[in-house]
Amino acid sequence: MKRVLSLLAVLCLVAQQASAINLDSLMNVEKKEAHRIPRQMLSFSFNINTAADQTYSFQFDYQWYALKYMGVGFGLEYDKNDVADQQSRDENHGYAYHYEKDAVLRLNFLPMLSFRTPTVWFSHDRSWGMMLRCDPMLVMSVPKNDAMWISPVPLPGTSYYPEGNVKVKNHGGKWLAWRIRNALSFYNEFGMLSLGVSFSDYNIYSCRNHMMYKGSKVFNLGLGNTTTVFLSLGACL
Three-state SS across 53-92? Predict the structure, then answer.
């Protein structure tokens, strides 16, 4: 009888130990899962672009990391030359704003690759972290408004044609560009805040740089590269 009781006691101790090990393993798995690096991100960005002119754009992005530190994404950007389309003019009682009907609007589609570094954790329980990200992408623009309305006669002594009633269209404007975006991102399991800068050969005026009238170019702001500073808010899915 004593042997039976001893055997039962040993079996109970083994079962308790196994249960404790399984519970610890389960808690470790749950903790790791709760603070894993997000695999999907949806974000909204406000961009300030500087090139031939300063413009402001808004962008939505979706990124999916198939691998831990590499994935793919897609973005949609709305860019408008808000500075250039409001011209200051002198009136009787000071200055007012005049809306230019030839304002440049661009809708850009952005297929991209997404890379990120390992996380630097700020808390012992890994609830907050920081990473660096790099997103090389293509900029595919819709030439929505590749036309201008100009005066048939330039301003005296210049080659500048002011706004008028003659319509001229662009020929062979650039619609494909590259962009490399870099960001410093702070995140937890729910959201992400990113600050960054990007470099691109995209230019908002590329839909206006091949406009000819009577053998002369009527618009030339160059096709220089664009530098963008942005702030992004995102959700970790």
Answer: CEEEEEEEEEEECCCCCEEEEEEEEEEECCCCCEEEEEEC
